[in-house]
Design brief:
322 residues, alpha+beta, Arc Repressor Mutant, subunit A, 2 domains, five-stranded antiparallel beta sheet, 11 helices, 43% helix, 13% strand
Length: 322
């Protein structure tokens, strides 16, 4: 494991020379770290590869309120049970460790007391490391890089051990002399780590089932008001960002939550809610198909008939007779 590997993230016992910090821009008390090499110097770690590093965050001691990495950064925050509500963790979450995923240029602040966690690991890698690799082509599919800090991943002990295993493997490869295989092997190891994190985020959606159902119930009430007011006329869909903001979520987390819980994207979700409302209105016997089509914002009665029959197997004129 990480703590037992003598080769891992050797931390210097002296502060980095002042000149090494001079090229790190400080704006509004934010430390802007441009490169992986600068990150190593700032955090007292040796550079084994110019485009990737695994850094031990023991007592980082930064004076700035926040830090901005101009490269991908993955934080493994250890012993998070002692850090209060760490990065959005609640009573229904695991508390053995926490992970946060940052895209290039994103600022991070652990808490009011600490810029970075007092104990943990940082995996830093430059986008250039991924050029011509399989991960370069689909890293955007790991949508948790676009989650908010409060939507962090909270790990069990067994999950933490697996994650540490891949941090170890990545660090061991970084200590190997750079050759023609380095880029491929590092990208594959990072990809495996991300795949496990995707699995653990799905598990977290399951352990948060009760909370997720409450969020979806809130979304459902708002969607019914939106549809019932005829605001979908002309195919006008609400913006995903508006729906996410309503629930206090990032757009990326909201989209993943909706797909996980319903199997639908936002357009599919609203279309099905609209058709369910159409069924209810027709069942009252007080609305004609034409009235329902107008009220719910369908472009024409012909379009309404086509979509409704495809969904229910019956024409609207037949459905309201049942």
């Amino acid at each position: 494991m990480l703590a037992g590997n003598s080769y891992l993230c050797r931390r210097k016992t002296i502060s980095p020379p002042a000149g090494n910090r001079a090229d790190m821009k400080k704006k509004e008390n934010v430390l802007d770290i441009k490169t992986v090499c600068e990150c190593n110097r700032c955090l007292g770690s040796k550079t084994w590869h110019p485009q990737a590093a695994v850094i031990n965050l023991e007592n980082p001691g930064l004076e700035q309120q926040a830090v901005k990495f101009d490269f991908y950064a993955i934080l493994l925050i250890e012993d998070s049970a002692g850090c209060g509500d760490c990065c959005g963790r609640r009573y229904y979450d695991f508390a053995y460790a926490t992970m946060v995923f940052l895209t290039p240029g994103e600022a991070f602040r652990m808490s009011k007391e600490n810029t970075l966690p007092p104990r943990g690991l940082l995996l830093a890698f430059d986008p250039m490391l991924l050029l011509s690799t399989a991960l370069c082509r689909h890293i955007d599919q790991y949508t948790f890089f676009h989650y908010r800090q409060e939507e962090a991943l909270h790990l069990s002990q067994r999950e933490t051990e697996r994650v540490r295993h891949y941090f170890d493997d990545i660090d061991e490869e970084l200590h190997h002399a750079i050759d023609g295989h380095s880029r491929t092997l590092l990208s594959r190891l990072i990809e495996l780590l991300l795949d496990y994190c995707a699995r653990y985020y799905e598990r977290q959606f399951i352990t948060r089932e009760d909370k997720n159902k409450r969020l979806l119930a809130q979304l459902g009430r708002w969607a019914d008001d939106y549809i019932g007011a005829g605001r979908m006329a002309g195919g006008r869909m609400p913006a995903a960002a508006d729906c996410a903001g309503l629930l206090g979520l990032s757009e990326a987390y909201f989209g993943d939550l909706l797909r996980f819980e319903t199997g639908q994207n936002l357009a599919e979700y609203f279309q099905l809610r609209r058709l369910e409302m159409a069924k209810r209105l027709l069942q009252t016997g007080t609305h004609t198909p034409a009235q329902v089509a107008r009220q719910l914002g369908f472009n024409s009665i012909a379009r309404f008939n086509l979509v409704f029959q495809k969904y229910t197997g019956q024409a609207p004129s037949e459905y309201n007779l049942n």
